[in-house]
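tool=predict chain=A
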Amino acid sequence: MLTEERYLKPIFSRYRNGTSFLDTVPPDIHYMVDSYWFQFEPIDQIYFNIISCVIFVLGMTSIIGNLTVIYIFLSTKALRTPSNLYVMNLALSDFMMMFTMFPPVIYNGFYGTWALGPLFCEIYAMFGSLFGCVSIWSNTLIAKDRYNVIVGGMSRKPVTICGALLNLTWVWAICLAWALFPFFGWNRYVPEGNMTACGTDYFAKDTWNKSYIWVYGFWCYITPLTIIVISYYHILKAVHIHEKSMKEQAKKMNVQSLRNTDAKSVEIKLAKIALVTISLWFMAWTPYSFINMSGLLGFMNLSPLATICGSIFAKANAVYNPIVYGLSHPKYKQALSEKMPCLTCGKPESGLTSTTHDDDNRTTDMESTVA
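tool=predict ok
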């Protein structure tokens, strides 16, 4: 077995021929690593290099992107609305997730194993659980808020600053509780098979610890996905009905259109935004959820390299969230072009589409903030 001093050496300076996976695990975290992983050979150095490069690019892009979103929304008075608090909260949680996640992955990849000890493994996993869960539910609050704006229309009760803050406080409190449960005996945090990150123990054998994965999966995956899909379905349905009625009204008045923009293009734009939002969310969190369920049910043989794929997809969500929820917002793009023109892509939109019909406000609201 490797001596303890050799764990302090970088992976490329170790002699790895004939070494088992267990031999690469530092003695102080042996008890945390499930015996399932001991059947595999150590991961080759080239894969750690690739993982480190990918995570570094994702981490820096996410940090810059989310800090930009936070700065633009805070420094632009027109963007400081109750609904946009959800977008800023999403940017904050994504920023914190990558700020705490990507440096340890690179550091551990340099040594080819988890080199930061058992306590930091648990803290790392707790941060990942907390900020990831908050990001998921921030996405959900945004979808629900857009549903209230578009489908509820003039009859809705508008969200206030206090209401938005209460919703966010509730999300942070519940997500923090879920992140802390493993410290109190409901499941536990352990190194993942790739040994560069830590997460929940989806190889737990007893029913009590398995139940955490089931309930947590329902809370952080099934429920948000259901709410997001239903919300955007009804949004598209409401916009389609609204545009159809506008066409019929224009026909009765013997005019081509009552709007300054083509109705079909509006529907196509909304459909694309909804499709992108749901698809990216699904692609981000489904692989990680699938890996957890695979370990829990044992219906497929997970390899150490497969576990990093789920983590990378989930972390990538923190990169494209600023694009989906920021750059698709016309007023945000306009503010970005004024404050940071070097980051502007394409011609900024001048603002909301003008209309003389109150009923049409639902559509213009959707065009400006649905992302």
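The domain at 4-369 is CATH 1.20.1070.10 (Rhopdopsin 7-helix transmembrane proteins). The mean pLDDT is 80.
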